[in-house]
Design goal:
Elements (H helix, E strand, L loop, with lengths): L2 H17 L6 H8 L3 H7 L3 H21 L7 H18 L1 H10 L5 H26 L7 H22 L8 H19 L14 H16 L4 H15 L6 H11 L6 H15 L1
Helix pairs in contact: 1-2, 1-6, 4-5, 4-7, 5-9, 7-8, 8-9, 10-11, 10-13, 11-12
InterPro entries: DNA-bd_HTH_TetR-type_CS, Homeodomain-like_sf, HTH-type_Tx_Regulator, HTH_TetR
GO molecular function, one term: DNA binding
Organism: Aquisalibacillus elongatus
Length: 278
């Protein structure tokens, strides 16, 4: 991230936490960051647009910190350590989080889209850890277990932001994983019927990726735009079928890879569809 952009983001976080979102002006932000006002508008269209980068900044920071815990070989210890890092991060940034709750910061479309992506990645993180800790026997219940783990984390997070002093953070991560044991081993032992018939649309990664690729095609591709859109439409139609034809999808994916503007997104879509099919 460019130095000036990061300065603006970190200064705005500091001011928003202290004064509130609505009471902080762009001029105050650039004064705090010690940059020219024009620099702000080089990176952001508005304060609302700035919030997109702040959300992204926080998410990337916490994920980098949590990934550091993966050096541990024991999946259970990794999960406990990641929870410890996460809750400590919330404590360290509590003033800003309280501001978000208090000020009702308006959500522009980009923020809403980012929050959806964040929810998807959080859900994937939960499932990845659950499978690592409990093995293949939990797979029939991985979605239910992920929902329960996310619910527990969310509830304790809300409590922590409001009144951290009443929680023992040294005990909490291991306590949560112990409760996850009760849930997961209980489901595997009783062989309960799962309550989840299908994943909601928000957790189907390919939908969001297809939408993103379509937007890029519309804005960045001039030659053969119609052919690119047709190929994307074919993929979208095929993945909704009960028995999608992989040969058709693969053919359209290869066609879309020819366009540099969407190459990385198409690669991600390809990997996502392969994972969903496994």
């Amino acid at each position: 991230m460019q130095d000036k952009k990061q300065q603006i983001i970190e200064s705005s976080i500091k001011l928003f936490a202290k004064k509130g979102f609505h009471s902080t002006s762009v001029q105050q932000i650039v004064n705090e960051a010690n940059v020219a006002k024009g620099s702000f508008y080089n990176y952001f269209e508005s304060k609302e647009d700035l919030m997109v980068s702040i959300y992204d900044y926080y998410f990337v920071t916490i994920m980098e910190k949590m990934n550091e815990a993966k050096v541990e070989s024991n999946p259970r210890k990794v999960l406990i350590k990641q929870l410890d890092i996460y809750f400590q991060f919330l404590v360290d940034h509590k003033p800003f989080l309280i501001m978000l709750l208090r000020d009702q910061v308006p959500l522009v479309d980009d923020v809403e889209s980012f929050i959806i992506q964040m929810r998807q990645q959080n859900f994937d993180w939960s499932k990845e850890n659950i499978l690592a800790v409990y093995g293949e026997d939990i797979r029939p219940y991985e979605n239910d277990a992920a929902v329960m783990l996310e619910g527990i984390i969310h509830s304790y997070s809300s409590w922590l932001v409001v009144d951290a002093e009443t929680l023992d953070l040294d005990v909490l991560p291991r306590f949560i994983v112990n409760r996850l044991d009760d849930v997961c081993y209980g489901m595997m032992k009783n062989q309960d019927k799962t309550a989840i018939r299908d994943l909601p649309q928000v957790f189907r990664h390919h939908d969001l990726l297809i939408s993103k690729i379509r937007q890029i095609i519309q804005g960045a591709i001039s030659e053969e735009k119609d052919k690119a859109l047709e190929a994307l439409d074919v993929i979208e139609q095929e993945v909704t079928k009960k028995e999608p034809q992989s040969i058709i999808i693969d053919s359209m994916i290869e066609h879309l890879k020819k366009f540099d503007a969407i190459y990385n997104e198409v690669l991600t879509l390809e990997k996502t569809l392969e994972r969903d099919d496994s």
